[in-house]
Amino acid sequence: MTGALTGPLPPGATIGILGGGQLGRMTALAAARLGYRCHVFSPTPGEPGTLVTAASTIAPYEDAAALDRFAEAVDVVTFEFENVPATTVERLAARRPCRPGIRALSTCQDRLVEKAFLERAGVPVGPWAAIHSAADLPAALARVGLPAVLKTTRLGYDGRGQAIVRTAEEAEAALARLSPHPLIAEAFIPFVAEISAVAARGVDGTTVTYDAVENRHAHHILDLSFAPARVPESAAEAARHHASAVARELDLVGVLAVEFFLLADGSLLGNEVAPRPHNSGHWTIDACQASQFDQHARAVAGLPLAPTERHADAVMRNLVGPEGMSLWPALAAAPGLSLHLYGKAEARPGRKMGHATRLFPPGTLSSSPESILLSHL
Ligand code: AMP
User: Which atom of ligand 1 approaches the CA of 111 most closely?
Assistant: First the structure.
């Protein structure tokens, strides 16, 4: 790695962040507390990250001259968005340390590569098959069965680029709609809950994990996270164990989240990996001494990681689109609630505008009805 750092970044040094979204914004806010400056590189102006950082570059990810100037201006590079082109990170990595590196990025950019990687890392996954052309469909369906989920291998998120199919005819129609991209066919998993775990790994290889959380989606977008997950202890521990193993296998420096399906028998199947702070880890800002963003800033800067202990139970709700945004005055006035808004100018449908977290004394989540947990949220 060119320009390898030999020790922690000194306060006043600059962390370069690829991507202008809220994950970079919250990382920058955490980095600022440690005395660092951040410089956001974003193709679009006015993004949440650029509004809180000392500097920003607005240019396409393919703009070589802008990338070279950005590299000159920063001491280390990270990303808050895994769909940054690999060539962008390669160019920067030749000039500055990139944390995490190209291995984590490229593994998580492609669902086929990611699934094979999860298997190698010892994380159980459901039946899956690659579909490179229409001719692969019958064999793929024979392998995964019906119903199945067809997903584009790249650039899919929040349910985009995927279809649940119940018959071979539906699968053919979905294939026609989602092609010409290569697809992955997955068995439809009859999960009883979705859980995730966030891990952080430092430059020295030290790995820490947060309590696993239970996630609920609305319209394919994360709606609620319950921390800790109300699942058997063995499943919660397995999620942390797998997140740690994935961070190690990716040689990650930074933070990642692994999402799982919990089955009725208490076992887990890995779904996907996000090699960056994750929406299901936002509760850590309010419920832990050090949040996932603090850990990310620490890892990227080469500092020791901080404890991950949770001092409260937490429920996090995402504020999505105009409906979510319309709640902010009430949420700002609600007692005991932390409101986080991302500064986005326009509340388009489906856009994550902010989140709110309510804390409870430890032990409350497992012993209280949801009507109590969700009041004021
Ligand atoms: P993903 O983009 O892979 O995270 O999928 C988005 C959401 O779709 C997941 O959080 C699940 O709720 C659902 N989903 C994805 N894959 C499957 C599957 N193989 N079986 C059942 N539900 C799925």
Answer: 3
Domains in the chain (CATH in brackets) are 14-98 (3.40.50.20), 127-187 (3.30.1490.20), 193-373 (3.30.470.20)
Q: How far apart are CA 264 and CA 58, in angstroms?
A: 48
> Judging by DSSP bridges, how do beta strands 55-58 and 37-42 pair with one another?
parallel
pLDDT 10s digits, 183-239: 999 999 999 999 999 999 999 999 999 999 999 999 999 999 999 999 999 999 999
Atom of ligand 1 nearest to the CA of 189: 20
- Closest CA relative to residue 235, chosen from 278, 206, 264: 264
CA-closest residue to ligand 1 atom 18: 188
Residues with CB under 6 A from ligand 1: 126, 149, 156, 159, 186, 188-189, 194, 217, 220, 259, 271-272
Helical (H) or strand (E) element with 269: strand 268-274
Residue nearest to atom 1 of ligand 1 (CA): 159
Residue 123's closest CA among 271, 296, 334? 271
CA 112–ligand 1 middle distance (angstroms): 15
Tokens read off for 247: 């961070």
159 C-alpha vs ligand 1 centroid, how far in Å? 7
For the chain, how are helix, strand and coil distributed in percent, rounded to 5?
35, 25, 40
Is residue 182 classed exposed, middle or buried when 0-12, 13-18 and 19+ CB atoms within 10 A define those classes?
A: middle
- 270-314 confidence digits (pLDDT tens): 999 999 999 999 999 999 999 999 999 999 999 999 999 999 999
**How far apart, in whole angstroms, are the C-alpha atoms of residue 58 and residue 49?**
11
Q: How far is the CA of 92 from the centre of ligand 1 (A)?
A: 33
Q: Distance from CA of residue 109 to its chain's centroid? A: 12
Closest approach atom of ligand 1 to CA 187: 19
Nearest atom of ligand 1 to the alpha carbon of 188: 20
The pTM for the full model equals 0.96
